[in-house]
Amino acid sequence: MTIAPDDARRDGHLYQVMREFVQSMDDTLPGKFEITKEGIVHDMMSPAKPHELTTLRVRRRLEKVLPEELVAHTGTPDVEEAAEGIMRHPDVMVIAEADMEGEGSFDPRTLVAAVEVVSRSNPDNDWVSKMRDYPLLGIPVYAIFDPRTGSGAVLSDIHSTPDGPRYATRKDFVYGEDVTIGAWTISTEQLPRYP
Question: What domain of life does the UniProt record list for this protein's source (predicted)?
Fold first, then answer.
């Protein structure tokens, strides 16, 4: 569900109000809150077991092939670009361990890749909104795993368009195939599907 502000302006004050709201709700209501260009997105359902198991398996497989200085991180904090009015929380972030130091949100320009496992309750958040937001944030590679269909896509090569930065290259895959995320290839064997 997207909660759009009445005022369509995306000034710093409005973003700060939305950010404070999200922070106040994080431990109060179930699900996950993020801030997009449209407003606040609330994925009301707690992640299902297939979502969490896919996230775990993708993270472990990436960690086996990543160089030592990079990690496949699944925790907090969020990725935030206040100037764009966007705060997201990828399921898996490929990031240098050194870029995780310090306080506050991660700078999205430090991410090497973002990986999302599509939510059963809000698939457009991953397939539409994040496909728009991640190139705007400068995240060079975005991989989507969809347990609804047993397929996914890897997007890369950010380029300018009249509607803003977009990914120019999309490589679709089906579960069972190897998939390349950035410079690293992992298996998609035995990834769970939603019932």
Answer: Bacteria
Tell me what pLDDT residue 193 has. 96
Contact 107, 134 (CB under 8 A): no
**CB-based contacts of 107: which residues, under 8 Å, 6+ apart?**
79, 81, 99
Predicted structure pTM score = 0.83
As a whole number of angstroms, the distance between CA 77 and CA 101 comes to 11
77-120 residue pLDDT tens: 788 888 888 888 899 999 999 999 998 889 999 999 999 999 88
Backbone phi and psi for residue 132, each to the nearest 5 degrees, phi listed first: -85, -45
Cβ atoms of 45 and 31 within 8 Å: the answer is yes
Mean pLDDT of the chain: 86
Q: Domains of the chain (ranges plus CATH)?
A: 47-187 (3.90.1570.10)
